[in-house]
C-alpha cells in the first residue's frame, strides 16, 4: 500500500472486509491526532454499511465541532502488513470529494506502527 505526502497530509490506503465483501479505501489521512479510525460512508457504499443491533452511535469532537458516527465491528482491516480481525471502525457522513477518512491511533497502536516522517514510511514494529 502506497503512502504519500499530498498537500501537507500523509495519505494511505487500507482494505476493509465486512459481511464477506472487501474494498480498498484510498486517500485515508494518517492522523495521530484522531483516537479512532473513521471512514466516510461515501467511500464504502459497496459494502452496505448500515445500523445493526450490535452497533452503537458515538460522538466525536474535532476541529469541525461535535459529530456523530456509527461504530461497527467489521470482519477484517488490513493496513500495511497488519491485519486486525473483528476491529471496530467509525463511519460518518462527511462529504469530501478527495479524503475518504482517517487512520487513527486505535489502528496505529494495535499494529504497533513506527512512523518515519523523514522517509514517509510506516511499518508495524514486528517488521523492524
Explain this structure.
The protein has 128 residues and is mostly beta strands. The protein has one helix at residues 105-110; strands at 4-6, 9-18, 21-30, 38-40, 56-62, 65-73, 76-79, 82-85, 88-92, 101-103, 113-116, 121-124. Strand 7 and strand 8 (82-85) form a beta hairpin. The radius of gyration is 14 Å and the shape is globular.
Architecture blueprint of SSEs:
Blueprint: E1 4-6, E2 9-18, E3 21-30, E4 38-40, E5 56-62, E6 65-73, E7 76-79, E8 82-85, E9 88-92, E10 101-103, H1 105-110, E11 113-116, E12 121-124
Parallel strand pairs: 3-10, 4-9
Antiparallel strand pairs: 1-2, 2-3, 2-7, 4-10, 5-6, 6-9, 7-8, 11-12
Structure summarized in a few sentences:
The chain is mainly β and 128 residues long.
What keywords describe this structure?
128 residues, mainly beta, 10-stranded mixed sheet, globular, two-stranded antiparallel sheet, 5% helix
For the termini, the CA-CA separation is 17 Å
Q: Approximately how much beta-strand content do the residues carry? A: over 45%
**Sheet having the most strands:** 10 strands, mixed
Number of strands: 12
Rg (CA only): 14 Å
Q: Quickly count the helices.
A: 1
Strand and helix order: EEEEEEEEEEHEE
The mean pLDDT is 88
Q: What is the helical fraction, as a range of percent? A: under 10%
Low-confidence stretches: none
Helix-and-strand structural type: mainly beta
Shape: globular
Amino acid at each position: 500500500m502506497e503512502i504519500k505526502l499530498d498537500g501537507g497530509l500523509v495519505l494511505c490506503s487500507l482494505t476493509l472486509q465486512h459481511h464477506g465483501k472487501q474494498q480498498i479505501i484510498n486517500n485515508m489521512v494518517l492522523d495521530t491526532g484522531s483516537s479512532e479510525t473513521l471512514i466516510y460512508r461515501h467511500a464504502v457504499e459497496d459494502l452496505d454499511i448500515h445500523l445493526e443491533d450490535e452497533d452503537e452511535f458515538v460522538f466525536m469532537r474535532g476541529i469541525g465541532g461535535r459529530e456523530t458516527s456509527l461504530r461497527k465491528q467489521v470482519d477484517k482491516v488490513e493496513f500495511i502488513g497488519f491485519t486486525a480481525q473483528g476491529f471496530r471502525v467509525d463511519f460518518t457522513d462527511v462529504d469530501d470529494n478527495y479524503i475518504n477518512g482517517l487512520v487513527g491511533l486505535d489502528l496505529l497502536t494495535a499494529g504497533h506502527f513506527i512512523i518515519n516522517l523523514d522517509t514517509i514510511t510506516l511499518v508495524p514494529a514486528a517488521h523492524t
